[in-house]
Amino acid sequence: MSDEKTAKNLTALFSLLPLGLLLIIDLYAMWLQPLGKALSHLAFGVLVAQLLCSLVFLKGDICNGQRGRLSEVHTYFALFWAVWFFLSLFSNYHYVLTDLICLCGMVMVFSAWRQPNEAEMRVGVLKIGVAAGAIGTICYVLMLLEAPSLVWIQYNFAAQALTGIVLTNLALVISRNRLQGFIALLPLLMIIVLLINAIAVLSILAIHHFSVVDGQSAVVFSNDFAFILYFSLHLVIAAILAVHIFRKIKLEYPVLMILLTISASLPLWSTFAYIS
Fold first, then answer.
1. Which of 75, 77, 213, 231 is the most exposed place for a label (fewest CB within 10 A)?
2. pLDDT score at 2
3. pTM for the whole structure
4. Which contiguous run of DSSP H or E holds residue 94?
């Protein structure tokens, strides 16, 4: 009984650390924003992680033990959504779409929590969660439609998707999931999304760099080093993933936490980099 209690405590600790890290980075990034709105830089990434976990629940060939452990880890996503929902409700710049995104995230948490034993009912409940995740994703896109294109660098979907994939890998490692084929695909997916993010950000910067207003560039960079570091971190992530892919080494918890910290910090460096 003591060993079982210790295992549960470790699961709770290992599950809370990534979400706590994301919240610290996300709240600091919000505090830096002049907009003053309760708008998360990482909510889309958390939705991606939950949708990927739902895919495992729906399509993964997993036993009840693996399903139960992943469901337990998945419930800790509720911390992220509860904090943001509280901030949104009591913010001076209340944003209804943020409320809706948080509610969609919570629906996904509840759809994965204590899943019904009966297969058809379980699939139906999980599909409700997937639908909620899709609605939350659409709401997040709607929030950014009116934002200037440079702001998209801070909230861009590719960087957040990278964070979400890392978070999914963490959830599978913590829950001791044995879907080795799916887990082996995640580092490759990270590399692809990382490349997409680099191309997207470079494209946005290039467009604004060559945009001229009154004979000057439309963008004035306040800290060139921040963007140098931004892209240098891409190389660090790529190097870590390349070593693990080519040597066929499984990504373990400490390495995944490093990747999560780097990927989640990308919005911060883009915030430090310019004044538009």
1. 213
2. 62
3. 0.91
4. none
Contact 105, 50 (CB under 8 A): yes
User: Tokens 């538009």 identify what position?
Assistant: 276
Q: How far is CA 238 from CA 81, 159, 201, 232, 234, in A?
A: 30, 13, 16, 10, 6
Task: Please give the C-alpha separations between residue 145 and each of 15, 136, 155, 156, in angstroms, as whole numbers.
Answer: 33, 15, 11, 12
Rounded to whole angstroms, how far apart are CA atoms 54 and 25? 25
> Which has more pLDDT, 10 or 138?
138
Tell me how far CA of residue 155 lies from CA of 43, 140, 152, in angstroms: 9, 10, 5
**Cβ atoms < 10 Å from Cβ of 233:** 17
Query: What DSSP line would sit under 139-163, residue for residue?
Result: HHHHHHTTS-TTHHHHH-HHHHHHH
Distance between CA 218 and CA 17 in Å, rounded? 40
Q: Which residues pair with 274 in a beta bridge?
A: 221
pLDDT in tens, 19-59: 999 999 998 888 876 555 667 889 999 999 999 999 999 99
Burial class (CB in 10 A: 0-12, 13-18, 19+), 188: exposed
Scan for tokens 């139906």, then name that residue.
Answer: 124
CB 200, CB 161: distance < 8 Å: no
Spatial CB neighbours of 241, under 8 Å, sequence gap ≥ 6: 187, 190, 191, 194, 259
Phi, psi torsion values for 28, nearest 5 degrees: -65, -40
Please name the residues in contact with 132: beta carbons below 8 A apart, sequence gap of 6 or more: 103, 104, 105, 107, 108, 111
The residues that bridge with 212 in the sheet, in sequence order, are 217
